[in-house]
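User: quick one
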Amino acid sequence: MTVEEFRLPDVGEGVAEGELVSWLVSPGDRVEEDQPVAEVETDKALVEVPSSYDGTVEELFVDEGEMVPVGDVIISFRVGEDGAEVASDEGDAAGEAAGDEADTAPEPDADDDAPDAEPETPAGRTFAPPSARRLARELGVDVAAVDGSGPGGRVSEADVRAHAESGDDAGADGDAPEPRPAPTPTDVGSGDRTSAVRKRGEDGAAEPSQPAASGAAPEPAGRDTTLATPATRKLARDLGVDVDDVPTDETRDGEAFVTGDAVQAYADALESAAAEPAPEPEPVDLDGTAAATAPTSGDGTPAADETVPYRGVRRTIGKQMERSKYTAPHVSHHDSVAVDALVEAREELKPKAEDTGVNLTYIPFVMKAIVAGLKEYPYLNSELREEDEEIVLKKEYNLGIAVATDAGLMVPVVDNVDEKGLFELAAEVRDLATRARERKLKPEEMKGSTFSVTNFGAIGGEYATPIINYPETAILGLGAVEERPVVRDGEVVPAPTLPLSLSIDHRVVDGAVAAEFANTVMEHLEHPLLLLTQ
Amino acid sequence: MVVGDIATGTEVLVIGGGPGGYVAAIRAAQEGLDATLVERDAYGGACLNRGCIPSKALITGSGLAHEAGNAEFMGVHADPAVDMAQMIEWKDGVVDRLTGGVEKLCKANGVNLVSGTASFVDEHTARVAHGGEGQGSESIEFEHAIVATGSRPIQIPGFDFGADHVWTSADALDADSVPDRLGIVGGGYIGMELATTYAKLGAEVTVVEMLDDILDPYEDDVKRIVRKRAEELGVEFHFGEGASEWSEGADGGYRLHTETEGGEESTYGVDKILVAVGRQPVTDGLDIENAGIETDDRGFIETDDRTRSAVDHIHAVGDVAGDPMLAHAASKEGIVAAEVIAGEPAALDQQAIPAAVFTDPEIGTVGMTEAEAEDAGFDPVVGEMPFNASGRAMTTGHTEGFVRLVADEETGFVLGGQIVGPEASELIAEVALAVEMGATLEDVAATVHTHPTLAEAVMEAAENARGQAIHTLNR
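Assistant: Done. Structure below.
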């Protein structure tokens, strides 16, 4: 019998890591090949990871909720240990085979403490030039945790920076320098050392400026640099006071100078202020981790903030949004279209759709109208490849449909919208949306869109500024179809209208083209018969 | 001069002006800190005054004399006479220029120089006793201190350095004449450098060494080349023998007595005895316990990778902080100490510290040997280039030795190198750069080297490790 390690497989193109959401097996469980052993949440999908072995679960290497890079060992199986099972496969030879294996198999635990991951360098050695190592210390990055891009995995300064920006090192122990109070140079650059070195007798020669009256906490001066003798600095350290905060009117060589008496007075003032309850600004807890310092709730008991991990789908969405918004200069174009005819058309078709088990919404009509617009204005169905200095005009019309789920936004894709009928589109959108909410989408079902639609109006709202589903060039947002006042023949009358919000990547498309595209879409929604031409 | 005790303050107090201390003081000053350097003897420390520099001067002088007198094969016929006193005078001139330079550099950078002997009063105060009676003393309050007091030669029982004919390495570098017979206790690098020097100057040199070979930490093939050459120069080796005592000889000289582990005794006729069995840290008189610091069993101050002692604001650099007891290691530590004090993210994170032995031929090493690489878990691949295949080596008349590179087979990273041969001390710098930069064998092999130079051998060794050498047979 042997112990086989199993690594997190590539669960989808481009997916580098996944959150191990739950284990479906525990150590000692018997598993068969292809039996799901874990649920892993990756790039917007929940994937079941199947076993590659028949055997018994030996050890789980990852806790639920942990992020696991693709290729890391997550579980090990004891394979071929069970005589009975071997017997069923190999008949009479079973006993013998089992015996043989017992003799020749390596120690089952031999690998336990070395689940050899990537090409690991021995002795914790990381190959990086001194400049990169120093940068790593500066940025608080454990250089051993950085993926090197150089030959043999050599770590460059750029790798260190990329690692630091990815934030993967947060909370990691390792080589990061412990924060140490840096001394404050007292005469930076002045070259005049007499400003810092003084005879002891000079201490306290001048009267310190008295800090604010007792009762109120003295205002910290908060200077960048302060001159003080070493003895004064030591006193400040002993009293737990930052010399830069000690108020003083005295200067030496143009720099604030603090005496021992001033430090003592400031420390005393701080103490007396602390003794009387004075309203103090609460420390701001930006990341919500320090529950102990959280503001108090009404009844006086501390109300602990809740910390929610920024991981999995939430983080994937965040990164994608960040990339889009910071890469593509967005412009949003708003308009609204009266859709009397569309409402009628839908009413008319709805029963027919229901006969075939389809719930017909406005979305399929809008999708068809979009395709009409995209055909006329192909730049909205494009992708800018900046590095290649190319704009790729897509010949497929694959529309991403934004779906709100409990876990966050997902954008499944309906391929070849131009080739599909209204009912077919309706059925497909419904299926994708349902499975998105159940987190059952496969990663490939969320790839390949060339333009996206977001139906924010389903929940409420007239206009929005949608963020492009990067690297697409445009996204169309739909408000709710409602009766709104419109002007017809000089009179304000109610009419069903559909507000539209179109965001474009202004690098690729200008506002005029966006408006023309919107006009074409609106024209097709206003006159749904035109959709027949599509 | 004021008699009595005056108090001054400084941000960084550096004790000891050797290559660890003066470098630390200058860097601290460059960082904008107020730095005070206390030196009790001469700026530059053992390195400039009694070690690296003087020995290199004599090694060069003796080497030149020896070369000139042994170049008949090139058609050069000469019989050089060495005026030892003049060579020492020249050496002293070099040392003076360098130590004067150190002092000027310190001043130019705004380092406050104080001469005297420092000792700790408490963890923020040191007292400096100025040299001589009635010169007074001063107290210096400091925020941070860097102890860089260095090391001194170890004295062994039976060989009091007070005797005129018992030499420390410093004495051997300051002799006004060449002894007829020189006994050397210890076959380490100091013993071997001076054995070579004095053999070339015409002394009959006898080396006694307790171990069974010279240059203990080096690999056998490295040792062998240096030992063979020393033997050619007339150096006599006695291994497995420890020096026990000396006595006066009948011929006006002395007798060096040795003893093996088994109790077998021998005596060798000598005129001077150089004891070179190692160096020990200098912490006596420093009262370092007053600052809350204890030294280890051997007297060294233990430090972390940011050169901090057990007391955070007191650093130790150089020989007093332990191995490797090398000037360039001390300087690196000094820089790190000053930068750490200045709040910079500095650390002793070098991959390797190169070392050189100025024997004939020289030895230069850096990083791991093949065996060390294996122990560290690498799968080492080795490439070699013997100097007898180097055109430039042949034209110098020195073809002993080789360049060896050790690399990780999988990634190609250069892990270390050993060079024995002409200019090995210079050539090792390239290997050190490769190790420090994380260069691969390919990087070194693909770097075009000037022809005809000795340095080509480094490129060739890298090619050899890759099985692509042109001028040697690939392994």
